[in-house]
Amino acid sequence: MKQPLIPLTQLNLTNRFLFDEVMDDAQTHQDVLSIILGRDIPLLEQNDSEKEHRVSPLARSVRMDVFAIDEKDTAYNTEMQPKKRNDLQKRSRYYQSLMDTSLLEPGITDYNLLKDSYIILIMTSDLLGLEKYVYTFRAQCQEAQEYLLEDGATRIFLNTKGKNRNEVSEELVDFLRYVENSTDEIVASIESERNVFIGYINGCVRFGQTSKSG
């Protein structure tokens, strides 16, 4: 049975189709990255939605929601994950490995040229059950925990249902609130210019279009 068509005006940004369409605007994706990472992200030199990564016809490919590279040559993969799954930690590892294969040109032997990269999953569930908005992971030495493995790889899991408002920016809290409830009323209640712009672009994309529920 075919799924009924749902107007985009009735969808939140948790819908992957709508999320990809909105993030296809490079300025919007740049604003989202800046909010998540808590610093201004340099201009995006590349911004692709639904980018496929495949290393072999026999290997499992992945279609990344939004892939971008900024002017400092840092790579980002931003994913919307509205459904709770028990494989997201290993899925992020697989995404990381596939993204890395595309970041070095054939014949390059110096692995120091591998770009820094971020895998970002925006989730409506709590990865660790600690009620935090953000979980950031980098490789750490177990025998000397003050040392990180400086491989340039960072994985971030966001939780729209976090409760530690005093530990994150109000801008991030408002963004995650808007992701889960993408209404004009939410936009009207926030002050961040970046969040207001995200709401504006979302409104432009939703106007007069329909999509299958995702």
Structure description:
- This protein has 214 residues and is α/β, with parallel strands linked by helices.
- The protein is built from six helices and eight strands.
- The strands form two sheets. Strands 2-3-4-5-7-6 form a six-stranded mixed beta sheet, sandwiched between helices. A two-stranded antiparallel ribbon has the order 1-8.
- The longest helix has 14 residues, at 88-101.
- It is globular, with a radius of gyration of 18 Å.
- Mean pLDDT is 88; it is low at 53-61.
Low-confidence stretches: 53-61
Rg is: 18 Å
Q: What is the element string, with H for helices and E for strands?
A: EHHEEEHEEEHHHE
Name the quaternary structure. single chain
Helix content, binned percent: 25-40%
Q: How much beta, percentage-wise?
A: 15-25%
Structural class: alpha/beta
Q: Tell me the strand order in the biggest sheet.
A: 2-3-4-5-7-6
Biggest sheet: strands, sense, closure?
Answer: 6 strands, mixed
Number of helices: 6
- What sort of overall outline do the alpha carbons produce when their principal axes are compared? globular
The overall pLDDT average reads: 88
Strand count: 8
Separation of termini?
A: 15 Å
